[in-house]
Amino acid sequence: MAQTPPLGDSPLFGLLPVRLQDELVAAGHPVRLSAREWLFEAGDAGDCLYLVASGRLRVVAERDGETAVLNTLGPGAVIGELAILTGATRSASVQALRDTELLEIDGERFEELLARDAELGAGLARALAERIQRGGTLEASEAPTRVVTMTAVPGVDAEHLWSELESAFSELGVTVAHARPLADWGETEAWGRALGELEQAHDYVLLRADLDKSDWSSFCIRQADRVVVAAAGSPPAGLASPAG
Question: Using CA atoms, how far apart are residues 168 and 170, in angstroms rounded to an integer?
């Protein structure tokens, strides 16, 4: 992992003294998930917690036979601390929506730190109390569409469509569009962090992919909340505008 998880941005650990933040970082090891990969599933053992360094994840649970999105999590979020404190199994599943980097802290090691340092325990208690005051139970919610990937088959004026798509989204909110990675994005494994910075600064991020297996195209498709595929020809009969 190329960067230290931002404990100062964490609602759970950000108010702890730097000494304790350093201990937590030293106690963990990096984990990298590709977009759409599961971190864990409901019913799994709750034997570790995670701090999100970069990327985005969603918390999902089965309700009345359907999958409900309970929350979306970004950098600074802590995942799985309640399972360690209660000894329960995972109550929901967590899936990466973007390429994501986390710090994994073993549950036994975390409990050792809690037992040894009263300041850490007090800080954790305060953070959990504030979470309960804000509403400890999460209602189902739908994650907003923030990243849209466009690709086009041969025969489509992709340049014109790309321009029109950017213009349309710009009317909805602050939009940035990239047809290729920028030079300062670094190596392929760092593109997820660059995308995260774009998401923080914009309402919508548009990415343009080709119909190939390049690293860029694969990255764009993998990160997208929505994929727009443009093809030439008339729409299916059921979608045609009624005459007159």
Answer: 5
pLDDT tens-place string over residues 174-224: 999 999 999 999 999 999 999 999 998 999 999 999 989 899 999 999 999
* Widest distance between CA atoms in the chain: 77
Parallel, antiparallel, or unpaired for β 204-208 and 175-178?
parallel
Residue with tokens 């020809």: 233
Three-state DSSP at 48 gives strand
Whole-structure pTM value:
0.79
> Alpha-carbon Rg of the chain, whole angstroms?
21
Q: Which residues pair with 177 in a beta bridge?
A: 206
Q: Strands, DSSP E only, in the chain?
A: 28-33, 38-40, 48-54, 57-63, 66-73, 78-79, 93-96, 100-106, 147-152, 175-178, 204-208, 226-230
| Domain 7-135 fold | Jelly Rolls (2.60.120)
Cβ contact 95:58 at 8 Å: yes
- All structural domains of the chain with their residue ranges: 7-135, 147-239
238 contact partners, CB below 8 Å, separation of at least 6? none
* Cα 211 to Cα 164: distance, rounded to the nearest angstrom: 20
Q: Select from 129, 173, 125 the least CA-distant residue to 148.
A: 173
Question: Would you give the distance in Å from CA 14 to the centre of its chain?
Answer: 20
* CATH code assigned to 147-239: 3.40.50
